[in-house]
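Need residues for this backbone.
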């Protein structure tokens, strides 16, 4: 009998929502004594075959003793978890700690027997795999290191669950039973399996939202206008290929149609399944709608309704309740306060958004947390999508609103597999899980470009409604880490669209060499200057003169593309007076045909549109003002006419490129075109580098075990502490990082004694916080050759800055001359471990010139890290100086990276200054901070964000 004395408190932190293989969700939680009826009901719905596989004999029903055993746990040696949907069990798993002979045991026994049972209706959904991840995490938390399971040979599904998990395991066969034993320590393979399952499940969950077979719009008003009625009309007018329903509980019973769409008073009245519900009712009525949808089997919700976390603390709690409520039924949510979703695929044609027009179909995926920015992005792509160089558009669009459930990470999982999407554009106001986003971004960027602009990056707070993990890293550091993961970071939505159009339409450049040609010498020079500013290598512009015809452009572009010294071409064009849209069409065809003959290089057009001015000029015979016949010249005092604008109706018609052709993007300014090209060049280089990321080297002199012992001893004294000087030197020494010896000098006599111990020449330094690393303030005296110089320097320091106890002077041996640098590493709870490098002093403190890489750092990344700062030329012989020992510096970076990666308790390391000479380097000062390591949710079981 389980008594209160042998039970531990209910482990609420084991509760989690998970996404299953088919995209639905389930809740995983511990089984308690209150679950007896649920367990019996669950068991009654399991087939006789599944019961036989579980108990190895016919077992039609559970006895009272069984129910008691399976619901009474101590949450240490006996643990049971259930997967639930709608509050009912769909699967269970349990472990019992066992000793060497397979008998019940307690700690320190570290083995447990594990067993599953999954309701037949839910088999094949990945429930058992998800439960295995969670029960394994629970077992590790309780000191269990190994699972054992006995399975009948015919139970191939369960054997596959165990075998596919990726753990190190042994398999044996005895007495007609397969016995499996496997270690629970995560391995590279088990993590890879977990990430692959996470990807499939989350991608499928978004696919169910974006490719529904049927949609119900709930909250469609009886009179025209309003949000619900507008979205209903938008879905209908876009030509949605599935079944569409209007739902409003206020409709008369006799009314069965609204705006030509079948209408019902409740989702329950709809015959047949509903895959997606678009919810537009006021927030206070949403819970009732969620219940109806859940009971009808709706797979997902797009909640347009506002009044949640966007409206304050009460709304935030209402939002948490909404997510918990929807997940109870296995539904995922986009929103609330969302703008909607769009899928332009010909097989779907869904415009479940507030956008009045369906965007043009295309290859660009859009994600925006802000509805206003979503509108702006769709509008800009619509305006830029046509014109003289062909049409492009959107594959899918998601506006997540408050992002309570479905996030940018989920949409990235979908886009990775989506054959309709070639480029992903994201506007993010917050990154809820930076570590996961970085991992997904790196994988996505390896196959298709990912362009991100982040709003609210200087505000210091996340937008209302966004649940965001706090990060201590500056925005610049986070941006650098994203770029390392292959993310194309831009600053404005204009840059986002500019880069997206280029990457969606053109091949990636092989390098930074740019040919420039066009019919405007001035525009060519502007383009040339812009290329230099962006770090590209432009050729001298080729001026075709304003008399150039379309054939001249074709010939010049063909020659440039055939030139092996050119990686990309920028064409500058101003309209020819009098030709209008016909001239534009001829030029577009000439450029497209030339580019098609050499499809391996990107081509961009800088095209100046003169709009109505071109027509005015075409009617003039002189550049001076002219009076038309019968009309007097306008008096100077008369008000000027309203200037004519280049209205959309006056634009040249879109020219549809042949199927499969590369479309050439056009830009209204040289700077914008070149900035987009520079982003593409950097991304292409990242793709090439990512193909061979390098390796994390092994060093024979690293004493990992010895360092672990030191760390454990230090942490036994406290939860978080900064090590003393000698403790820091000892720990770093275990990883081959040697700190230049420095001895305290509280008095002049102590300084002399320290100098005799170290050996002249020496340096005398003040280490008080306000003087540390500030040689410019005069707190350092170098090259002191004897006792007389040392005593004089000591007297000068105390006279200038105060008493010795305030200055904290030290004596240190002189290091070889070189360049002063700084190396830092920090573990951020949200973003993970990062390694930073820069030059010491003003370069980092004033200009913020630091480069960053995610830990663990490979040898190739260490090489690129020291070359990524703007002041890197000072390390490589700038203005005739001697180049530093870059190999020694790279090795130091790799050793620091290994230390932090091997020991997550090392939460911060600072080496400053590190003097890098032409041969070798000297670490003159170091500090190390230890703390219990932050939780690594990426190493645990799959979960959705908790509410």
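Answer:
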């Amino acid at each position: 009998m389980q008594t209160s004395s042998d039970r531990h408190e209910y482990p609420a932190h084991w509760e989690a929502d998970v996404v299953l293989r088919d995209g639905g969700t389930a809740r995983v939680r511990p089984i308690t004594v209150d679950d007896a009826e649920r367990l019996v009901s669950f068991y009654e719905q399991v087939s006789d075959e599944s019961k036989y596989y579980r108990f190895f004999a016919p077992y039609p029903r559970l006895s009272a003793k069984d129910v008691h055993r399976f619901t009474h746990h101590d949450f240490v040696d006996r643990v049971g978890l259930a997967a639930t949907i709608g509050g009912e069990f769909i699967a269970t798993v349990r472990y019992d700690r066992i000793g060497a002979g397979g008998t019940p045991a307690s700690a320190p026994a570290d083995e447990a027997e594990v067993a599953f049972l999954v309701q037949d209706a839910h088999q094949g959904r990945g429930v058992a795999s998800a439960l295995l991840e969670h029960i394994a995490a629970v077992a590790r938390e309780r000191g269990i290191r190994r699972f054992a399971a006995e399975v009948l040979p015919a139970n191939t599904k369960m054997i596959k669950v165990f075998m596919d998990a990726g753990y190190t395991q042994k398999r044996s066969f005895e007495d007609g039973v397969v016995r499996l034993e496997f270690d629970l320590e995560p391995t590279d393979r088990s993590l890879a399996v977990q990430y692959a399952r996470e990807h499939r499940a989350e991608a499928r969950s978004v696919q169910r939202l974006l490719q529904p077979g049927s949609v119900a719009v709930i909250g469609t008003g009886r009179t025209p206008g309003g949000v619900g009625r507008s979205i209903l009309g938008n879905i209908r007018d876009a030509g949605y290929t599935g079944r569409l329903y209007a739902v409003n509980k206020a409709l008369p019973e006799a009314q069965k149609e609204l705006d030509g769409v079948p209408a019902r008073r409740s989702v329950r009245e709809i015959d047949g399944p509903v895959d997606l519900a678009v919810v537009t009712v006021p927030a206070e009525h949403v819970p009732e709608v969620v219940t109806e949808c859940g009971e009808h089997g709706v797979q997902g919700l797009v909640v347009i309704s506002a009044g949640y976390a966007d409206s304050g603390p009460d709304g935030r709690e209402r939002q948490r309740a909404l997510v918990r409520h929807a997940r109870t039924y296995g539904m995922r949510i986009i929103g609330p306060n969302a703008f909607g979703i769009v899928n332009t695929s010909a097989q779907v044609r869904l415009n479940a958004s507030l956008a009045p027009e369906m965007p043009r179909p295309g290859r660009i995926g859009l994600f925006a947390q802000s509805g206003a920015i979503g509108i702006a992005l769709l509008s800009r792509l619509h305006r830029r999508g046509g014109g003289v160089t062909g049409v492009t558009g959107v594959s899918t669009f998601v506006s997540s609103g408050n992002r309570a459930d479905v996030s940018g990470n989920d949409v990235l999982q979908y886009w990775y597999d989506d054959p309709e999407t070639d480029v992903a554009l994201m506007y993010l106001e917050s990154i809820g899980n930076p570590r996961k986003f970085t991992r997904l971004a790196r994988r996505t960027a390896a196959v298709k470009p990912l362009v991100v602009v982040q709003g609210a990056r200087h505000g210091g707070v996340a937008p209302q409604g966004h649940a965001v993990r706090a990060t201590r890293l500056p925005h610049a550091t986070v941006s650098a880490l994203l770029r390392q993961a292959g993310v194309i970071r831009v600053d404005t939505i204009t840059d986002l669209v500019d880069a997206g159009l280029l990457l969606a339409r053109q091949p990636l450049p092989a390098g930074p060499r740019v040919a420039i040609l066009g019919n405007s010498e001035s525009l060519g020079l502007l383009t040339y200057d812009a290329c230099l500013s962006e770090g590209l290598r432009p050729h001298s512009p080729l001026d075709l003169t304003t008399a150039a015809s379309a054939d001249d452009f074709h010939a010049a572009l063909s020659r440039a593309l055939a030139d092996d010294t050119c990686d990309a071409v920028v064409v500058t064009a101003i309209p020819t007076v009098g030709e209008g849209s016909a001239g534009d069409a001829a030029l577009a065809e000439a450029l497209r045909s030339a580019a098609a003959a050499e499809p391996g290089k990107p081509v961009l057009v800088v095209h100046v549109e003169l709009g109505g001015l071109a027509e005015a000029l075409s009617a003039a015979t002189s550049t001076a003002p002219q009076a038309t016949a019968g009309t007097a010249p306008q008096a100077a005092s008369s008000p000027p006419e309203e200037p004519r604008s280049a209205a959309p109706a006056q634009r040249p018609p879109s020219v549809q490129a042949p199927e499969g052709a590369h479309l050439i993007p056009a830009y209204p300014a040289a700077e914008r075109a070149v900035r987009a090209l520079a982003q593409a060049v950097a991304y292409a280089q990242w793709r090439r580098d990512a193909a061979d990321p390098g390796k994390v080297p092994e060093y024979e002199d690293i004493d990992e075990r010895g360092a672990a012992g030191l760390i454990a001893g230090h942490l036994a004294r406290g939860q978080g502490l900064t090590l003393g000087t000698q403790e820091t030197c000892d720990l770093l020494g275990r990883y081959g990082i040697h700190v230049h010896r420095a001895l305290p000098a509280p008095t002049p006599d102590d300084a002399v004694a320290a100098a005799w111990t170290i050996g002249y020449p020496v340096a005398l330094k003040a280490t008080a916080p306000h003087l540390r690393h500030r040689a410019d303030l005069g707190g350092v005296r170098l090259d002191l050759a004897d006792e007389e110089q040392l005593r004089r320097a000591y007297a000068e320091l105390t006279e200038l800055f105060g008493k010795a106890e305030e200055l904290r002077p030290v004596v240190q041996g002189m290091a070889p001359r070189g360049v002063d640098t700084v190396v830092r590493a920090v573990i951020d709870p949200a973003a993970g471990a990062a390694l930073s490098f820069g030059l010491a002093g003003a370069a980092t403190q004033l200009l913020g010139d630091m480069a960053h890489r995610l830990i663990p750092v490979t040898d190739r990344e260490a090489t690129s890290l020291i070359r990524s700062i703007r002041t890197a030329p000072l390390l490589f012989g700038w203005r005739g100086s001697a180049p530093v020992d870059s190999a020694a510096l790279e090795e130091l970076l790799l050793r620091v990276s290994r230390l932090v990666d091997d020991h997550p308790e090392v939460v911060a390391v600072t080496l400053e200054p590190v003097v890098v000479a032409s041969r070798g380097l000297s670490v003159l000062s170091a500090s190390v901070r230890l703390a219990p390591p932050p939780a690594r949710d990426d190493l645990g079981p799959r979960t959705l964000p908790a509410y």
